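<purpose> Linking amino acid order to shape
<body> The protein record starts here
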Amino acid sequence: MKHFIKITSTIFFSMISCSAYSLNHNFLSNSAMSFYSKEDWSLSRTAQDKALNQNKDGVRLVWKNPKTGSHGIFLPKHTIHANGSICRDMQIIQSANSIHESSTYRFCKFNNQWKIV
């Protein structure tokens, strides 16, 4: 009987783990950026860096790839200077394959590179 319970429990928890993984994977596969081409990624990354390094708060930077139709907006909203470092809250609006998304992230500059914190 103990052996049966052990096997049943293992199968049950394996099924739960697989279901959780599938849900997480499905979430990622339906995001706009999951449809980005290599060129989309390059254009987006260049625009993101430019917005973080050059744009004032409230000034948006728009990028578009006419080949794929993917496009986005980077909008720095709030800049914080503290303890010798800089952080910026930035809204990111992105569209690809008829999927449109908007999120706001905080980026901080460490060792001359922007990281999401």
Residues 2-25 have pLDDT under 50 and may be disordered. The two ends are 50 Å apart (CA to CA).
